[in-house]
Design brief:
Helix content is 72%, strand content 3%. With 292 residues, the chain is mainly α. A hairpin with a 3-residue loop joins strand 1 and strand 2. The longest helix is centred in the last third of the chain and has 29 residues. The N and C termini lie far apart (89 Å). The relative contact order is 0.12.
């Protein structure tokens, strides 16, 4: 370049906007959810059951939307109705002693939901019947069948405290997995499903859940520390399994989050994934250890 030629200004690259979650929004939504659950569990059990039924129904819609991306058409309206009736009705049977044991009512409702889906799909075209019924069966087994253990646990003696103990173990499991996995994680557990999960994180999840389980058994349930230890040791793998299953559904459907209904958190399934599998396990351990 000659001295007479003006120097060309080097263009400044435009900064790439960071893509991520809105942290303040995520914190606000998280605190709101926590407050609603606390109010329900501590002072208004019916409110907690209503929140659970509504959340499970939204989760049904989210899984249905994911399966649509694979060409699978579930009977979503029928399943939502079955979910609401199963969860709310099972708790009503316990609360007002309406003549049926909650477990019996829940089994009848879930089976009735399957039958209703079969009938509804029979009225449509023959093509794709097996595929669509498989989609409905998957959603029913995944959400209302597992979610109905929420009112079943509420119907047990000290049911609210049992729910609190199970939720505490799930939260401890997720927290322990994240903390230990972030600091010490080296060996990938399921890289094709969730690349961030490690065996070290799973170990942290189990240890943390076991500790919280012991504390919850002694201080919340009035039970032996051995029962709390078993509860924590069983909840952690169940919660991890629930997380992996939901992650694989999202990967297969090409989704990052199930939805954007909960700003900063994704969808309802993104919050319920660990809890769905942990609830039946928690119910079983506490039912066997404390009676029902």
């Amino acid at each position: 370049m000659s001295p007479q030629e003006p120097a060309q200004a080097i263009p400044t690259p435009t900064p790439t906007p960071k893509v991520g979650r809105d942290l303040p929004m995520a914190i606000g939504v998280g605190l709101g959810l926590l407050a609603a659950l606390a109010v329900g569990l501590l002072w208004a059990p019916w409110f907690f059951v209503l929140i659970s039924a509504a959340s499970l129904s939204m989760a049904v819609v989210e899984i249905h939307q994911a399966l649509l991306r694979k060409g699978m058409h579930a009977q979503v309206k029928t399943i939502v109705a079955g979910t609401l009736v199963s969860v709310l009705g099972a708790y009503a049977m316990f609360r007002w002693n309406l003549g049926l044991p909650p477990t019996t009512f829940a089994v009848i409702c879930v089976c009735g939901t399957v039958v209703a889906c079969l009938v509804a799909r029979l009225l449509l075209a023959r093509e794709g019947f097996i595929r669509d019924i498989a989609a409905s069966a998957l959603i029913i087994a995944y959400i209302p069948l597992m979610g109905v253990f929420i009112p079943l646990m509420m119907a047990e003696p000290g049911g609210t405290r049992r729910i609190i103990a199970v939720v505490a173990c799930v939260v401890a499991s997720d927290t322990g997995a994240y903390a230990v996995g972030s600091l010490l994680g080296r060996h990938k557990m399921a890289p094709h499903i969730s690349p961030s999960k490690t065996w070290e994180g799973l170990a942290g999840s189990i240890i943390t859940s076991a500790i919280v389980g012991v504390v919850a058994a002694l201080w919340c349930l009035g039970a032996s520390w051995e029962l709390g230890l078993v509860l924590g040791l069983c909840i952690a793998p169940a919660a991890t399994l629930g997380d992996l299953v939901e992650s694989l559904i999202k990967r297969d459907a090409g989704l990052k989050d199930m939805s954007n209904l909960l700003p900063g958190h994704g969808g309802f399934m993104d919050r319920l994934d660990s809890m769905l599998v942990a609830m039946p396990m928690g119910w079983l351990v506490l039912h066997l250890g404390m009676g029902g």
